[in-house]
Design a protein that fits this description.
GO terms for molecular function: ATP binding; ATP hydrolysis activity. This is ABC transporter ATP-binding protein. Keywords: ATP-binding, Nucleotide-binding, Transport. It comes from Homoserinimonas hongtaonis. The chain has 2 domains: about 180 residues, Rossmann fold; about 70 residues, no CATH class. The protein is globular and about 50 Å long. The longest helix has 21 residues. A hairpin with a 4-residue loop joins strand 9 and strand 10. By secondary structure, it is of the alpha/beta class. The N terminus is likely disordered. The protein is built from 8 helices and 10 strands. Helix content is about 35%, strand content about 25%. The chain binds adenosine-5'-triphosphate and magnesium ion. Magnesium ion (MG) binds next to helix 1.
Length: about 270
């Protein structure tokens, strides 16, 4: 297990990031001057219409897509250095598991392919993480033998192997039914609570964003940009009881109104 001590310095700094795709008339600005700080130990959700650039923002922070302009630092390091040191864990929008490897081998894969990269980092036991995500009985199965929701959970478990200090999660619970989704949310919160990382979590669910987050970033589309950042001051640790509180409902109203304004503006 990693140290329970909270790191209060560092985090992710996104400064004036812009990104376009295409050329000439077909050129579209996907991210327009996006700036955002995520402190270590902070849980931030991103919500916004389809195509507003949520996944692109995560890919830029993860170093998978270069920004056209602007900078991203992770704990003061460049993205290149941070990815080399395995400081960033990414759960992509689709699980991207290797079909010929078992669940256990998929989760252990980053350790095997990157033996040299993990000096000085705490490596977690893949079996322990799989157990935490309710997959203890599935370690020897192949991805094709799992439901879509289980595959998503394997991808989440894989992101924890290097015990990254920053976790980027792109709609990780989208393939789950509501009951399981709630269970996984609570499981993730529990894990994060004892193991604080800077989290950037993309979702289309307003209750999910409120339940999990310290702050909710509402993005607008065409061009993709941050429209509003809403603080979630609900006390932690949070349980399902939070859904029934007045404060939760009030926040839900605020986020939904902000989203409606954003959607109206962009005609999505
Ligand atoms: N590799 C690429 N080449 C060209 N255009 C791209 C590429 N990746 C994304 N886009 C475009 O950038 C825009 C933003 O895409 P992105 O996947 O970031 O949206 P999103 O907010 O994650 O949407 P969703 O909620 O549907 O997942 C879209 O218009 C998409 O078509
Ligand atoms: Mg996306």
């Amino acid at each position: 297990m990693s140290s329970p001590l909270l790191t209060v310095t560092g985090g992710v700094e996104v400064s004036n990031v812009s990104k376009s795709y295409g050329t000439g008339d077909a050129r579209t600005t996907v991210l327009d001057n996006v700036s955002l700080s995520i402190r270590m130990g902070e849980f931030v959700s991103v919500i916004g219409p389809s195509g507003c650039g949520k996944s692109t923002l995560l890919k830029v922070i993860a170093g998978l897509t270069p920004a056209d302009s602007g900078t991203v630092t992770v704990d003061g390091s460049t993205v290149k250095a941070a990815t080399k040191n395995k400081m960033i864990g990414l759960v992509p929008q689709s699980p991207a598991l290797l079909p010929w490897r078992t669940v256990l081998d998929n989760v252990a894969l980053p350790m095997n392919v990157n033996r040299g990269a993990n000096t000085g980092r705490t490596l977690r036991d893949p079996r322990e993480i799989l157990d935490r995500f309710g997959l203890g009985a599935a370690v020897d199965k192949y991805p094709s033998q799992l439901s879509g929701g289980m595959q998503q959970r394997v991808a989440i478990a894989r992101a924890f192997v290097f015990d990254p200090s920053v976790l980027l999660m792109d709609e990780p619970f989208s393939a789950l039914d509501e009951m399981n989704r709630d269970k996984q949310r609570l499981g993730l919160l529990d894990f994060w609570q004892s193991n604080r990382k800077a989290v950037l979590f993309v979702t289309h669910s307003v209750p999910e964003a409120i339940m999990l987050s310290d702050r909710i970033v509402v993005m607008a589309a065409h061009p993709g940009r941050i429209a509003e950042i809403i603080d979630v001051t609900l006390p932690r640790p949070r349980t399902e009881d939070v859904y029934a509180t007045d404060e939760f409902r009030d926040l839900e109203g605020v986020v939904r109104t902000t989203l409606r304004n954003v959607m109206g503006e962009t005609h999505v």
